[in-house]
Amino acid sequence: MAEIRCPMCSTLNQADAASCKLCGARLKPTGRLGTPSEEPGPEMRLPATGELPPWLARLRKDVTGRGQVPAEVPPEETPEPPSEESPDWLGGLRPADSEEEGPPEGEVPDWLAEAAPAAPATPAEPAEQGEGPVPDWLVRIRAKAQADTPAEEPADTPSAPAPTVEPTPPPTAAQPPASPPELAAEPTLGLPDWLLAARPDEAPRKAEAETPGEPSWLKEAGLDSSPELPHVQALIFEGDAPRTPVSDADVGPISVEVPDWMTELKAPPAPPPEGRPNLAPATLPAWLEAMRPVDTFRSVVEIEPEDDQTVEAAGPLAGLRGVLLAEPVMAMPRTPTAGGGRLEVTERQFAQAELLHRLVEEEQREAKPRPQARPRPPLLRWLVSVVLFVAAAVPTFAGGPAFPLPRLQPRELDVLASIVDGAPAGQPILLVFDYEAGYAGELEAVASPLIDHLLGRGLPLATLSTRPTGPPLAERLVAQVAARHGAVRNQDFVHLGYLSGGPTAVQLFAAAPTQAVFRGYLGPGGSPWLQPMLLNVHSLSDFGLVVVLTTGTEIARTWTEQTQPWLGGRPLVMVLSAGAEPLVRPYYEALQPKVQGILSGLPAAVSYELRLGQPGPAESRWNAFGLGLTAVEVFLIAGLLYGAAAWLLRGSRR
Amino acid sequence: MTNEALLELVGTAVAALLTIMVLSYALGDNAFFRLAAYLFIGVAAGYAGAVAWHDVLQPRLVAPLLSAGPAIIQDSSQLTQVVAPILLVILLLSKVSPTMGRLGGLPVALMVGVGAGVVVGGAITGTLLPQTVAAMDSLNPAVVAPQTGETGIERLVNVLIVLLGTLSTLSYFRLTGKRDQPDAARYGTRPLRTPVGVISIPWPILPFLGEMFIALTFGVMFAGALAAVILVLIERLQFLAGAANVILGGLLPAP
């Protein structure tokens, strides 16, 4: 009949047995054992009883009372020579020292004797003795551990004495890997010796220090726990995961399934001693917590429910559930614990981060609508308006005060008058009305004496505009002046109407006027070129004089540039708004002038009317114009004085 | 009162009312000013459209097309003066369609290209070269200005002022800066000994003089614009006075 070997005590049991008849350990794994590749190979199985180390066999005999375990093995589990067939990694381990060979024959550790009273072992010394006599083999182990520990002890735990944990006897090639019972329940998981040696102040051992059956070295280690150690959160904690009770076997943070016989060894939980911190389960000592990377380490070892825990399939822990795998601990990438655990932030970076945080907060903050300030009445605006209205209205409605008319005529007025006087009789005069209706009040007053002069000479007039509103403005002014001379529309003056196309149309009109204008304004119908006064006009040079009335420098420049090649020596006269005169005057004052005559501003118009001896709209507005300019000058002077005073005050304050 | 007189009276009253509504802006932005402004904008746009149809589209495109009929295709002169413009108009109207809008690029390109050529050509031959020559005027005192009649010292001083103003203004428009001092002040100061003592003058002096010339030019233009609007205000007030006489004279019975 087939038998299986207990993974814990190597006792042969029936193949269908669920638990070991000796130690009660579960023989059949509850989880999957996986694929055949996961089946433990012969090199990973426990050696036969006969191959156990002598000290372990002696211990087994003392505990169980059975001197020899039958060395029967299943046919398929024929043992192989251990020395030659052991894996390579076992060969790299160091041989066991003499101190690691276990207690001498006949000696059983106190805790083991206490936990197994039925066994015919040597009576152990009572645990209450605490510092009682220590076996020699254990003294040698402590001495070696104390000699090795100080050099590897962390520097931040000076108060903690050197641990007295018995080092784990490493397996050797000649000696199969088998551990004492207490070490089998306390897997090292490949942790370094110094870390294992630094574990004596763990909470379970402190509680165990009060138990009557604890070993003397454990009691000594428990006294080393500093009562001032703070409580820290567990490194591994999951609310849903079942908490592994703290056992006396001191499995630490590692959750394993402890065999039943091991759980029976647990001493009843003793109440926490007075004056000592009641460390909660699943807490870490401060020295170990200090070694943990802050905020960067995320444990890859998670406690899984019992049903989800993997059953170890090979090695001395084969068949156990919940064995901590070596791969997450050794192979998974982690944040380096030295130096890289904390983010190095300089003061400048911190300040910039604070600034960015503040900016984001301000952006997210909803802007509160500011209460609208009560609108202040524009007193200054009203004052200026009232003054200007009064200055312009008083002479108009009241007739005074009277400002003296200009006695000196502008120099360009003589030139203009001579041009008009020199215009050939019978040839029509082209008047271009290129201004908006808003400036009619100014340009009508300025151009009125010129038109009056032209009509007084009996020259026929032809009006044109590149703006849609130009023809009505031309009709309004020319008809007003013509009424004084008895001139008749379509006989003495003709409206050519609207010329569309901007500068291109101006050039086209200069080159071929009859092809640029098809329909006149307020004409008898048909083409305006059929009028008798325009029958001889075929080009721009057929006009006796070209007069442009405009308020913009761009329009004046367009007519000056585009008509020069086709003027044929005919003079070009500009009637300008006062604001446009400075930019047009260079065309006039050049040695080779592009503009032969210029008329701008009310003073020049008044002088023209005085020259003609016919008072017109310019002279009627002279007094109001003078008073209005006086008011404007007063405001300018007041503003200049205010600015100077403010500047001086600022200078004195500085 | 005849219909024409009544129509003129109503027109004068409406014009006076609109004038007052516009002048009410002196008190601040109000509904009357906005109503008058919107009315002027609408009337101006409508009037411009009517003029474009009456003076351009109807006599140049529609009338020839209707008078000639289908035979217009056989007339070569009408093809270039009527048919081609109509096609360009149709292409330009395709701009309103999102799918056929690219066809409108041809007339737009034609207008922009022709307009730019006309303006640039005229500016070079009519303004740039003549004004450059005018800036290099003769310093001979015997020369007489053809338009102003200046001669002798008066003209010489005038020519020198024009020359200084031209050079200093050109030097002002330098678009360069020091590499290591991009925000440095435009002018520094330099002490200058004078009979009355040492004074600090801006340095470099030539761009500073150019800035002064530009400021004087803008000041003169502002003064001219101010005089123009004063004159317009006076004309409007005179109109209101005349309108008041007309309205009151028309409404009140004659004595």
Description:
The complex is a heterodimer of chains A (654) and B (255). Chain A is 38% helix and 6% strand. By secondary structure, chain A is mainly α. Chain A has a domain of 205 residues: Rossmann fold, CATH 3.40.50. The longest helix of chain A has 32 residues. Chain A is elongated. About 22% of the residues of chain A have low confidence. The longest helix of chain B is centred in the C-terminal third of the chain and has 47 residues. Among the domains of chain B are: 74 residues, no CATH class; 96 residues. Chain B contains six helices and two strands. With 255 residues, chain B is mainly alpha-helical. The chains are: A mainly alpha (654), B mainly alpha (255). Chains A and B meet through helix 14, helix 15, helix 16, helix 18 and helix 20 of A and helix 2, helix 4 and helix 6 of B.
Secondary-structure topology with pairs:
The complex is a heterodimer of chains A (654) and B (255).
Chain A: E1 3-5, E2 12-14, H1 54-64, H2 82-85, H3 88-91, H4 110-115, H5 136-152, H6 181-184, H7 193-197, H8 203-209, H9 216-223, H10 260-263, H11 286-290, H12 326-330, H13 347-364, H14 379-398, H15 411-422, E3 429-434, H16 440-456, E4 461-465, H17 470-485, E5 493-498, H18 502-511, H19 513-516, E6 545-550, H20 553-567, E7 572-576, H21 581-589, E8 597-600, H22 602-612, H23 617-620, H24 622-653
Parallel strand pairs in A: 3-4, 3-6, 4-5, 6-7, 7-8
Antiparallel strand pairs in A: 1-2
Helix pairs in contact in A: 8-9, 14-24, 16-17, 16-22, 18-20, 20-21
Chain B: H1 3-23, H2 31-68, H3 76-93, H4 105-135, H5 152-172, E1 188-194, E2 197-203, H6 205-251
Helix pairs in contact in B: 1-2, 1-6, 2-3, 3-4, 5-6
